[in-house]
Amino acid sequence: MANNQGESGLTSKDYYFDSYAHFGIHEEMLKDEVRTLSYRASIYNNKHLFQDKIVLDVGCGTGILSMFAAKSGAKHVYGIDMSNIIIQARKIVDDNGLTDKITLIQGKMEDVKLPVDKVDIIISEWMGYFLLYESMLDTVLVARDKYLAPGGMIFPDKATMYIAAIEDGDYKEEKIDYWDNVYGFDYSSIKSLAIKEPLVDTVDARAVVTTPCAFREIDILTVQKSDLTFTVPFKITAARDDYVHAFISWFDIGFTHCHKPVHFSTGPHAKYTHWKQTVFYTPEAITVKNGETIEGVLSCSPNGINPRDLDIVIDYSFNGNHGSIKEHCEFKM
Ligand SMILES: C[S@@+](CC[C@H](N)C(=O)[O-])C[C@H]1O[C@@H](n2cnc3c(N)ncnc32)[C@H](O)[C@@H]1O
Main EC class of this protein (predicted)? Predict the structure, then answer.
């Protein structure tokens, strides 16, 4: 959710917690009803799970998830946030009469010492663009390994990442090919930068040309930090004759401890969320016929200099009626 680049060339590392200090970013998250109502349903509709439990809210922001848990019968909720938004969260919790149920602690989750040894449930909204941008899942894993009691639960507990390919000729021309000729000047040096930056944008479901491929499933209860650096194969099949200009990725989230599991999707076929989809333009268009396949390998790793950023590599090959393509594409987000 945090922006990746501040002014003056400062990196997201410097700005990360500042970016969460203003209420504006929280407004966008709170108003994302797919997001917030899924969390609320998973907590309110499962009072039997929250009743008398000790709950830890990792990255509590304005305190919304802490308040859901308190209202759902939790014995006590600890909300941790490094950002100054926690000053507002304290007021909000107080204004809603929940100070005896919720303790808010300002600090980095990695450094905070909770007043309890173990918690029964961890709740957290940690997902970034392309799921893993911001690397906040690392923080949840630290909290899990330090504080979650044996048999404890994490909300949400499942995430699945998908890839598909889209027709996007007009927008690619506007965003990428634009740099070939700017008022008669050759700006193609910027084109080579622009194509390396995945675009976070809303993709029309009608633009999707292929089947989706679930390339990564993450179980939050068991995943290790090292699993978040990965290289995985994918295979997608054209569902019509068309041109492919980009790959897109999105993720689905599951709260499977619930009496009736709660899920939401950030895909192009689902209702809008502030995560939108992540678009990776290919250097050349691929002419696909219905039934033809694109096979590839996707690698994802935290950037060596700023681990909140991601290095993503997509290698793919296509052998179709209208030609063969083999590409190696490097992206940074
Ligand atoms: C995506 S927001 C979610 C806020 C709130 N839970 C909600 O659902 O509206 C993530 C929050 O986690 C906080 N955060 C991220 N990493 C953290 C860390 N390592 N320690 C403490 N807080 C962190 C950020 O400051 C931010 O307020």
Answer: transferase
Contact, 136 vs 126, CB < 8 A?
yes
pLDDT tens digits for range 255-268: 999 888 999 999 99
- Report CA-CA distances (Å) from 289 to 116, 166, 233, 237: 59, 13, 21, 9
pLDDT by residue (tens digit) across 117-154? 999 999 999 999 999 998 899 999 999 999 999 999 99
pLDDT above 60 for 8:
no
What residue owns the CA closest to ligand 1's atom 13?
59
For the CA of 124, the nearest atom of ligand 1? 6
Count of beta carbons in the 10 Å neighbourhood of residue 190: 14
For residue 307, name the pLDDT band (cuts at 50, 70, 90): confident
Q: What is the pLDDT of residue 18?
A: 85
Point out the residues that are catalytic. Answer: 125, 134
Is residue 125 in contact with ligand 1, taking CB distance under 6 Å?
yes
Question: 19, 33, 37, 58: which to mutate for ligand 1, most atoms within 8 A of CB?
Answer: 58
85 Cβ closer than 6 Å to some ligand 1 atom: yes
- For a mutational test of ligand 1's pocket, the pick from 136, 141, 142, 275, i.e. the residue with the most ligand atoms closer than 8 A to its C-beta, is 136
Q: 300 - beta bridge partners?
A: 230, 312
Report pLDDT for 2: 59
261 Cα: distance to centroid of ligand 1 (angstroms): 24
Complete domains list, the chain, with CATH:
7-125 (3.40.50.150), 159-332 (2.70.160.11)
Tell me whether the omega of the peptide bond preceding residue 156 falls within 30 degrees of 0, making it cis: yes
